[in-house]
Design goal:
heterodimer, A: Rossmann fold, 2 domains, 60% helix, B: Rossmann fold, four-stranded antiparallel beta sheet, 21 helices, 10 strands, 62% helix
Chain lengths: 669, 602
């Protein structure tokens, strides 16, 4: 959705036209019958419309004028006239109805078809691909881009009908009077040329306006998302300034589009009218020569007014084409993206905790930095370029015996969260292997990892679904097991207090939960699957210490016997582990029992004993001694952790955590 | 247009729901954007000329057939025809120019007016209280400054012009047709009148159908959004198939709703065609009979048939115009709904008081708070915080500590009692002064999609890179900064998601520090940061904010140990207050909390 991504200049003349036609051809091939009916309707309508001019001319010559001249008429003549006109009307109505109904049907079917494909592709593509693409862009691929791609389908049958109509009209005019027909052969090509010229000039402007519109929306989204920060820092004025600038750019673009349209519409309307005047002028000369009848003149004039609209339908298509091509290209980029995760055939048998082995694992991500500092348009760049990469994990090596618990400890940004996503095979390492019970996770069958392991991420994604749906996620689990899991996660009491219990709807449109409640929900979601490997990524950070202690005790006491990997800072959590893995700057610095690490690893000691040291220093200060500036001398380097990307903030729903600030209050609306 | 708009959006309790009539809504909408009215008179004049110009050609045809061709028996009257055609050509040219001018002026006026409306609505959203903001989906708020305004724009530039021109066209066609033959005119109106009523009825059905489309589309986008935003969890639990089925359901429901609406909307054109055909037939039959009686000439009859075309077009367009109008009015209502919501936490404005800089004294006098229609969450708080004190706020989930902090930063106003800063009621302090002196760091510090430096600079625009770096170094985060691949230029990604949760909190802290407040409020601002870094920041803040007042909600009780004073919340009241050393020694809530903290961390 960024401005940059619409830079593929649309108005590249013929190339654009050809590409646009290819897009439409895809639709014709996908829905041949619907398309055929729509075109048939359009052609019927077109033929009858042209025919109606002859009918009117015919009626003028054979019924109206004689009647006026002779001062009398017959009932039969009048009935003929009425019947002719009614028949024309009925045929037109039929053609029009069929055209519009089926054109719409085709458009909506294609939209639905591609939305489903895009969404399914999203589900298939690996997480690494998702990380390279901003959320807003992916949403607009599935929505606005699909819509834009199939937009020209609505006027397409009409345009095809119009071609047909023009051909019929041309023949009719030439047959009636070649000289008068010449006027049409001048006026209509001029009309068509004006159309093309206009579209050429307006298309880039309109595309730009469209991009600016998206930008206005992005600014508003971001600003309202960050409303709390804007408010607490008193930055309403600068934000309004930023939005106003964007809105004014849109305004100016819209006005320049408007200026073109303002010129185009009157010209398109006036040209056929000038044609009619020319027909009158020259027609009168032809009439005086006896070359045409008065009825012919009427027919010509009528045809001219009739053909205006169909000619304009070409303009609509031309106008929609550039957007359609851009939309199609963006949709295709998703549909043709490769890198879907490959799965093997292996399964993990047995019961109880699985043995986890990590050998020589390294991981890096593509750098999103650009010189202007705005960064991040990796979306349109191929994934495998030689772009600079930032290393997050280097040569990580460890193993955990089945049923053991290991704590991963390390400073902020040391790669812990990234490691958990690798353990769960949400992403694959650049080098090295992760194995369950000796089997490389890449060899495991699809779905096998989820059957064996469960990850509770740092922030919880809540689906717009019931509590039950959010926990079972479609798994075949009965309510007693759901309650059992909720009890283990200490979430049973607040869920029971919800108005509809397990049937309460959650998400942005439903009940919102506090951060701690969401984490407990996620925990229940994991344990209800009875995983043999449970990975907790700082999953209780928003839970009160007492409740956390209860949860940890509960986990220990169950018959799960799972292997547990827990990312933690809290002592109690760490002490629960059989062993500790201490990480710094993307590598495992040390490994061992908590007590041993405390003794031999200075970094670990500094991290884990930070609170005691702080308390001791305060005591020293209070005692009047000058405390050494320890903090200044031995800072632990905190490296960059792209784990963030594995922890997309995932509040209730699309636009985020409306309930963030209610965290502690647990307001249930 | 007295369209009885069936309100289609479920405005949550927070935002004002306009009860204005359609006319009232339009009037107020126009008032809000003065640009609309500027030069409207002239624009309308051009519009009238442009509309009148539409009858030039039918009249020319009539004149030429009657007077030019049929007048003299000896043949066409050349001079007359040439004269008529030339005159009409000139008139057409004038019409063209007027029509151009009308369009340009309309585009400029509406776009300028709508930009103003967007700006006002946007600003107003930020002026609303947090509570009101959170009563709406963020997406719904965004659409009030985007899609809703676009809807008004579509109507004004397309439907509006069409409405003016079409009504004019109907009027002029009627007038002219009456000149030719009042009997035929009556006939035409009688045959079209039922259609007009039918269109209104259909249009009501249609607006319900379109509402259905909007709702289904919303559900669909929500479902597709989950595949993107919940990508990790869907993969972790292998629920791809179930998710795909949920999406299919919503996509197909959307398609069904679209097709249904389309069926209704297209129905009117074939009907109009049929009615027009009947009208045509009736006019020919009756016209010929009248002509025999000498009431009408053949040219007039033919011109009449041409004029009927002017009549049919607006009828065919009517449903769509009505629809656009209704959408525009609904859009306008929603925008007005924002602007009509009085911010319940308002800036005192001109009369607001400025607080002098320096350590802040805070006083709570008999403060109580209850959420609208909710239970009381804070009850009778009477406390004083001396200038320069570092206070830690502790308590269990739901004990009222967050509410306390929100009242202190005036994100909310108390239901009873008052919060005083240096003896001044918060409600009387100018926002400009309040927001520079009091800064809060929320738990999830939101980052904007730009560079790290820009995000910090958000608190103090104009600060140079050197200042920002100095601030980071002062907070003891120099190593962290240097570990970032591009330092201050490192892009943080949307919502800062290229950084880890802990790093986002670091940025928010630096940002607040750069803002240089006199009262710093931290709401679990370091919950995702490792203990060592947390302690270092804490110490740096203590040193740097020395002499300033600070209030911190402490998730980890280490913060409480370091504080000058601890406020212990339980069940909406402050049940204990004192230093850590005092409180930990006496039995009570704090001692219990601390024991559990000790167990978990020490």
């Amino acid at each position: 959705m960024s401005l940059g991504s619409t830079n593929n200049e649309p108005g590249k003349g013929r190339g654009m036209f050809r590409r646009g036609m290819r897009v439409l051809w895809v639709a014709m091939r996908s829905e041949p019958w619907v398309f055929a009916v729509a075109v048939a309707g359009a052609s019927l309508h077109a033929a009858v419309t042209v025919g109606s001019a002859s009918v009117l001319g015919h009626i003028t010559d054979t019924i109206i004028l004689p009647a006026f001249a002779e001062g009398r008429t017959t009932a039969a003549a009048l009935a003929t006239a009425a019947a002719l006109l009614l028949a024309v009307g009925a045929a037109k109505a039929l053609g029009l109805g069929a055209r519009r109904l089926f054109a719409g049907l085709m458009q909506f079917r294609m939209q639905a078809r591609y939305r489903r494909s895009v969404a399914r592709k999203y589900l298939r593509l690996p997480l690494a691909w998702h990380h390279r693409h901003p959320t807003g862009q992916l949403l607009s691929n599935a929505n606005a881009d699909v819509e834009a791609a199939w937009q020209p389908l609505a006027p397409l049958p009409m345009a095809i009908g119009s071609l047909f109509m023009l051909a019929v009209a041309a023949v009719a005019m030439v047959v009636t009077d070649p000289v008068l027909a010449l006027i049409a052969f001048v006026v209509f090509p001029v009309l068509a040329a004006a159309n093309v010229a206009f579209q050429r000039r307006v298309a880039p402007l309109a595309t730009r306006a469209q991009a600016l519109r998206a930008h206005v929306s992005e600014v508003a989204h971001e600003s309202f998302d960050g409303a709390l920060v804007v408010k607490t820092l008193g930055r309403e004025d600068t934000e309004t300034q930023r939005f106003t600038e964007s809105a004014h750019r849109l305004r100016d673009a819209q006005i320049s589009v408007g200026r073109m349209r303002a010129m185009f519409d009157p010209v398109m309307e006036a040209l056929p009218n000038f044609g009619v005047l020319a027909v009158l002028l020259i027609g009168m000369w032809r009439l005086s020569n006896g070359a045409v009848a008065a009825g012919d003149l009427v027919q010509f004039a009528y045809l001219f007014t009739l053909l205006t609209l169909p000619i304009r339908s070409f303009g609509w298509i031309l106008g929609d084409l550039p957007r359609s091509v851009v939309g199609w290209d963006r949709v295709q980029k998703v549909l043709t993206a490769d890198g879907a995760m490959r799965y093997g055939e292996e399964r993990i048998d047995g019961h109880g905790g699985v043995r986890l082995t990590v050998r020589g694992v390294s991981f890096s991500y593509e750098d999103g930095h650009t010189s202007d500092g705005a960064g991040r348009d990796l979306a349109d760049a191929p994934a495998d370029t030689d772009a600079p990469r930032t290393t997050v994990l280097r040569d990580v090596d460890f193993d955990i015996a089945g049923g053991h618990t290991i704590a991963i400890v390390g400073p902020t940004g040391s790669g812990k969260s990234t490691l958990t996503t690798l353990l769960m095979r949400l992403v694959d390492p650049d080098t090295g292997t992760v194995s369950y019970a000796g089997t490389d996770v890449r060899e495991l069958a699809k779905g096998e990892i989820a059957r064996v392991a469960a990850l509770v991420p740092q922030s919880t994604f809540v689906f717009e679904d019931t509590v039950r749906g959010n926990i079972t996620l479609g798994a075949d689990v009965d309510d007693s097991e759901v309650w059992e899991a909720l009890r283990l996660a200490r979430a049973d009491s607040f869920i029971a207090a919800l108005p509809d219990g397990l049937d309460t709807r959650l998400g942005e449109r439903g009940t919102s939960l506090s951060g701690g409640q969401r984490q407990r929900l996620a925990l229940a979601r994991a344990v209800v699957r009875r995983p043999r490997l449970l990975i907790l990524d700082d999953a209780t950070s928003a839970v009160d210490p007492q409740i956390e202690a209860q949860i940890l005790a509960g986990l220990r006491d169950t018959d799960l016997a799972a292997t547990v990997v827990v990312v933690a800072y809290r002592r109690a959590t760490i002490e629960l582990a059989d062993e500790v893995l201490y990480m710094e700057q993307g590598t495992v610095r040390d490994r061992g029992a908590h007590r041993d690490l405390l003794q031999r690893s200075p970094g670990y000691r500094r991290l884990v004993t930070a609170y005691e040291r702080a308390a001791a220093e305060r005591a020293n200060e209070a005692a009047g001694e000058t405390a050494g500036e320890t903090a200044g001398t031995d800072r632990v380097a905190v490296d960059l952790d792209r784990a963030g990307s594995a922890e997309r903030p995932s509040g209730g729903a699309p636009y985020g955590a409306a309930d963030d600030i209610d965290t502690a209050e647990e307001i249930v609306r | 247009m007295s369209a009885p708009v069936t309100t289609d959006d479920q405005t949550a309790s927070g935002l004002h729901r306009s009860a204005d009539s359609a006319i009232g809504t339009i009037r107020r909408g126009l008032q809000l954007s003065p640009e609309f009215a500027q030069g409207l008179g002239l624009t309308l004049l051009f519009a009238v000329v442009a509309t009148v110009g539409k009858v030039i050609v039918p009249i020319a045809v009539q004149q030429v057939i009657d007077a030019g061709i049929g007048a003299a028996d000896g043949g066409p009257d050349i001079d007359f025809v040439v004269g008529t055609v030339s005159l009409c050509a000139v008139l057409l040219a004038i019409t063209m120019v007027c029509s151009y001018l009308m369009n340009v002026r309309l585009y400029r006026a509406t776009e300028s007016g709508l930009a103003t409306l967007r700006r006002k609505a946007f600003r107003h959203v930020h002026d609303l209280s947090v509570l009101t903001q959170n009563s709406e989906r963020k997406g719904a708020l965004v659409s009030r400054v985007t899609a809703d305004v676009d809807q008004i724009s579509t109507f004004m530039q397309w439907g509006g012009i069409l409405l003016i021109v079409s009504s004019g066209q109907l009027l002029i066609a009627t007038a002219l047709m009456t000149v030719y033959s009042w009997q035929l005119t009556l006939l035409v109106w009688v045959s079209f009148l039922p259609l007009l009523f039918g269109v209104r009825w259909l249009q009501r059905l249609l607006s319900r159908a379109y509402l259905g489309v909007r709702e289904r589309t919303g559900d669909m986008l929500g479902a597709i959004g989950e595949t993107v935003m919940g990508a990790a969890i869907i993969r972790a639990h292998a629920t791809e198939e179930r998710t795909a089925q949920r999406i299919d359901t919503t996509v197909l429901a959307t398609r069904r709703a679209q097709v249904k609406a389309q069926r209704l909307s297209m129905a009117v054109s074939p009907f109009a065609e049929l009615v027009a055909a009947m009208g045509n037939a009736a006019v020919v039959v009756v016209g010929v009979l009248l002509g025999i009686g000498g009431d009408i000439t053949p040219g007039e009859l033919v011109a009449f048939l041409f004029l009927m075309n002017l009549f049919v077009q607006p009828m065919m367009m009517a449903t769509e115009i009505f629809n656009e109008a209704q959408n525009a009015i609904a859009g306008w209502r929603r925008v007005l709904g924002v602007l009509d919501t009085a911010p319940d936490i308002a800036d005192p404005g001109e009369g607001g008081r400025e607080l002098p800089r320096g350590p802040v004294e805070v006083r709570f006098e008999g403060v109580s708070y209850a959420y609208p229609e909710g239970p009381t969450v804070l009850d009778g708080i009477d406390e004083k915080i001396a200038p320069g004190t570092r206070v830690a706020v502790v308590g269990e989930t739901g004990s009222g500590k967050t509410t306390f902090v929100k009242l202190l930063t005036r994100l909310m106003d108390p239901a009873a009692g008052q919060v005083l800063l240096d003896g001044v009621d918060l409600r009387e302090v100018a926002f400009s002064s309040l927001r520079t002196r009091v800064v809060m760091v929320p738990q999830e510090g939101f980052l904007f999609d730009s560079s790290l430096g820009d995000n910090i600079r958000f608190a103090r625009p104009g600060a140079g890179d050197a200042e920002l770096e100095a601030a980071i170094v002062e907070l003891g985060l120099a190593d962290w900064l240097h570990s970032l691949p591009h330092g201050l230029d490192t892009p943080v990604g949307q919502r800062g998601e290229s950084l880890s949760a802990g790093e986002r909190q670091l940025v928010a802290l630096v940002r607040a520090y750069v803002a240089d407040p006199d009262l710093l409020v931290l709401d679990e601002a370091t919950s995702a940061v490792d203990p060592d870094t947390e302690v270092r920041i804490q110490r740096a803040l203590d040193r740097l904010t020395h002499g300033r007042t600070s209030v911190a909600i402490a998730h980890r009780l280490s913060t409480a140990e370091a504080a000058d004073e601890v406020f212990v919340f339980d069940n909406g009241r402050i049940v204990q207050r004192g230093t850590h050393a005092d409180l930990v020694g006496q039995p009570g809530v704090y001692a219990d909390l601390y024991a559990s903290w000790e167990r978990s961390s020490a």
